[in-house]
Amino acid sequence: MRAAIAVVVLATVAGCSAPGVAPAPAPPPMSSARPPGTGPPAAVGPADWPTYHHDNARTGVADQFAPLGTLRKAWQTKLDGAVYGQPLVIGDRIIAATEHNTVYALAAADGHVVWSASLGKPVNGSGLPCGNIDPLGITGTPAYDPATGLVFVVAETEGGRHTLAGVDLASGAVILRRALAPPKGDEIAQQQRAALTVLDGWVYVGYGGLFGDCGNYFGSVVAAPTTGTGPLRSYVVPTPREGAIWAPGGGVVHNGRLLYSVGNGESTQVYDHSDSVLALTPQLSLIDSFSPAQWKDDNTKDLDLGSMSPAVVGDRVLAVGKRGVGYLLDINRLGGIGGQLTAQPVCQAFGGSAVAGSTVYIPCSDSMRAVDVDPAGGLRVRWTASVPADGSPVVGGGAVWVTDTDHGILYALDPATGKPRAQIDVGELPHFASPTLAGTRAYLGTNSGVVAITVR
Questions:
Q1: How far is CA 16 from CA 19, 276, 362, 396, in A?
Q2: 8 Å CB contact between 205 and 179
Q3: Distance in angstroms (rounded) separating the CA atoms of residues 51 and 443
Q4: Are 339 and 327 in contact (CB under 8 A)?
Q5: What is the pLDDT of residues 182-195, one digit of tens each?
Q6: In whole angstroms, what is the distance from residue 328 CA to residue 260 CA?
Q7: Nearest 5 degrees, angle CA 238-CA 286-CA 56?
Q8: In this structure, what DSSP letter does residue 280 have?
Q9: Which residue ranges form the domains of the chain, and what is each CATH number?
Q10: Overall pTM > 0.85
């Protein structure tokens, strides 16, 4: 089967290129058939890590992970650029994508490169209107689709063009690719940082702006069929500008709906669904939302909810953003403007949380918090980590795993107290770095590649 790849226009949009940079050519048509001899797609096992924070609910919990012992570096593989997305683990392969637009499969045993796939030249920082990643290539965490055997990524290439690619897990062949421009605004001003979500034959991609909030951008979600062909779906935050969807966790799936946190919009007079938690159908229709009563002030002061992905705890949603307030919501009725069940100070949160039972581990800018959620509608900050751990936490093997991104340290914290049980230097880390837990090892993307840490 041949994929007819074309730019599909969902709305009338205005595009632009970086000054002095010619627009990149449209990606060539590519076959959506699997390469001969590759066999059926690899299934996802209970110990695998196929998407950001392990599953589409973004729990960040690895039930099969080995108990904590002595930490030591198993291997460290230098790649062609920084790895901002969380590594994936499928069987004996570690999948990592770099800011140089290369997708790698590494051997879990020793880190050697099994295959690599290049998706084009990234954008140099000088070609962007603002931003803090240079070069800018693949930033959002990939997602593996066991139905097709493809690893999905979005690459940003010269001219600020965004391309969705499906890379065969077995061979590294680029099976499909299609232009996936944000549906509104200037493409060069929009960045794909949120993790991709694969759900029922579709891959969902969130867009926000560059660091500095420059240019004409709009928060949006675009969905493409995993087969590589067919019409796209899209949703755009109805704000005059901004309203970024950029939190690293991307779409959080619950009962077939996708929850996204949204950054500040430009409006301070007419409500524009920014500074919010939005519930979208798989067809990307808005069906529910929440915004704080002080959304106008949040928008004015850049104190929005868009900095952390929503955390789902049973039939509750916990949203924490830049203002530092935790809002507990009813997942069946998010509450509209000011309709939270309760609200109380937690911390300024940036990244993705982990959820174990009724406890949410929050990635705070000063240090991680453990927050207990009462189903009746209460919140309690149980502890603050005793070390400056500001990365996005995960849970496994009787420990909470979190990074100190400023100093390049991976901690294993006691889930009861927040005190370190073990720690190890892992090298320079990108923003919001979050470890992947599989088997007896933790895997981390670094500014130069991937490091594997044996935990016992």
A1: 9, 28, 38, 45
A2: no
A3: 14
A4: no
A5: 999 999 999 999 99
A6: 15
A7: 115
A8: E
A9: 66-454 (2.130.10.10)
A10: yes
